[in-house]
Amino acid sequence: MVFNMNKLINIQLSEDENAVIILDQRLLPSKTEYLRLSTADEMYDAIKYLKIRGAPAIGIFAAYAMYVLSKSPQRTLSEYGDYLKSSRPTAVNLQWAVERMLKAENLREECHAIHREDIAMCKAISENGLSLIKDGEAVLTHCNAGPLATSQYGTGLGPLILGSERGMHFKAYVDETRPLLQGARITALELMNAGVDVTLICDNMAGEVMKAGKVNAVFTGCDRVAANGDTANKIGTCGVAVLAKHYRVPFYVFCPSSTIDSSCSSGADIVIEERDTSEIIDLYFKEPVAPLGVKCCNPSFDVTPAELITAIVTEKGIINPARLL
Ligand code: MRU
After folding, report:
1. What are the tens digits of pLDDT across the range 41-65?
2. Which ligand 1 atom is at minimum distance from the Cα of 233?
3. For residue range 182-193, what is the model confidence (pLDDT) as tens digits?
4. Residue 109 burial by CB count (10 A; 0-12/13-18/19+): exposed, middle or buried?
5. From CA 92, how far away is CA 225, in angstroms rounded?
6. CA of 234 to the centre of ligand 1 (A)
7. How far, in Å, is the centroid of ligand 1 from the Cα of 275?
8. What is the distance between the alpha carbons of residues 188 and 202, in angstroms, rounded to a whole number?
9. Got the DSSP string for 68-99?
10. CA angle in degrees (0–180, nearest 5) for 295-298-302
11. Looking at 118, 175, 203, 223, which residue is catalytic?
12. How many CB atoms lie within 10 A of CB 247?
């Protein structure tokens, strides 16, 4: 591996401040290519098609995008904000960052502050999470909640990366995370770079790994937490939580406290994004893996009920999901 993922910049303002530059996450792990985005349509597409992805990273990107767009008089800032917010519905961070930018007096300072705060939050989340595992232990992960989904360290992967920096040795069983393979393409890459002992598994192998006693805990990120502690995260997370309960493996969810959305009383209020069915059939395959025209259902997220979550780890501490607010 040639780069340190934790130092790799995934989002930045261009030097002339007329564009946002992002690492195109669709191409990982084969290519590291940067994109320069200066129009509202390019920015909308970047979020919609997961060129930039991961709830906190989408929020940071949207903040820089709002600053850049504030210099283009074709639409009002609030119209640009509504347009960006309509790109993906589930992660609260996108709405949160847009609303924060709309209230800001100094947009330039605010987008940099959102980015700086995320770096500090991820470090604090990682420190808190590190207290949940011992040197030599193994964790199962789902989707990607590492540096590329945030700013640095990540949320769910942060404890493993921080611990590795301090000379600790962890193992990770990484769910590949169909259909967009964020686990295989990005989590495996980030953790291998950090020196974690990574074993990649297909999503349907998580139960077998738990049954064999190979993992001490499950660590995932999340996209929105309802007031009652239900959490939305990448499709398949709820299934992993059910398995973890059955096999008595602690199930931890990691996020900045801004991911807690008190306007959602329960998970039933969280809008789940439905994505194009081509993602299941042919996006990451040379040839279609199912008959073209077959009916598919492709929800991008699911909701894990609070009762399946051992604790939610934020920058503020390790919280019982039943006592969030
Ligand atoms: O569709 P994605 O790749 O944006 O989904 C990402 C996840 O579900 C992550 O687990 C979540 O956003 C937390 S990222 C720290």
Report:
1. 999 999 999 999 999 999 999 999 9
2. 8
3. 999 999 999 999
4. exposed
5. 9
6. 6
7. 14
8. 12
9. HHTT-TTS-HHHHHHHHHTT-SS-HHHHHHHH
10. 140
11. 223
12. 16
* Token pair listed for 122: 């991820």
Cα–Cα distance for residue pair 172/189, rounded to 1 Å: 12
Q: How many CA atoms lie within 13 A of 145 on its CB side?
A: 30
pLDDT digits (tens, 9 = 90+) for 3-20: 566 667 899 999 999 999
Task: Give residue 233 CA to ligand 1 midpoint distance, Å.
Answer: 7
Residue 129 identity: G
| Mutation to probe ligand 1, out of 6, 223, 240, 314 (largest number of atoms < 8 A from CB) | 223
Cα–ligand 1 centroid distance for 15 (angstroms): 28
179 cis-preceded (ω within 30 degrees of 0) = yes
Looking up tokens 């074993």, which residue turns up?
199
Which atom of ligand 1 is found nearest the CA of 150? 15
Looking at residue 258, what DSSP letter applies?
G
**What pLDDT digit, counting tens, does each position of 131-172 carry?**
999 999 999 999 999 999 999 999 999 999 999 999 999 999
Residue 73 burial (CB < 10 Å; 0-12/13-18/19+)?
A: exposed
Q: Which two tokens stand for residue 280?
A: 């299941």
What are the pLDDT digits (tens) for 197-241?
999 999 999 999 999 999 999 999 999 999 999 999 999 999 999
Q: Output the pTM of the full model.
A: 0.96
Averaged confidence pLDDT in the chain: 96
Rg (CA), the chain: 19
Q: Which atom of ligand 1 is nearest to the CA of 154?
A: 15
From CA 88, how far away is CA 234, in angstroms rounded? 13
322 is written with which tokens? 């039943």
**Ligand 1 atom having least distance to the Cα of 255:** 15
**What lines the ligand 1 site, CB under 6 Å?**
50, 53-56, 91, 143, 145, 149-150, 154-155, 182, 220-223, 233-234, 300
The CA 178 to ligand 1 mean position distance, Å, reads 13
197: annotated active-site residue: no
| Per-residue confidence (pLDDT) for residue 27, from 0 to 100 | 96
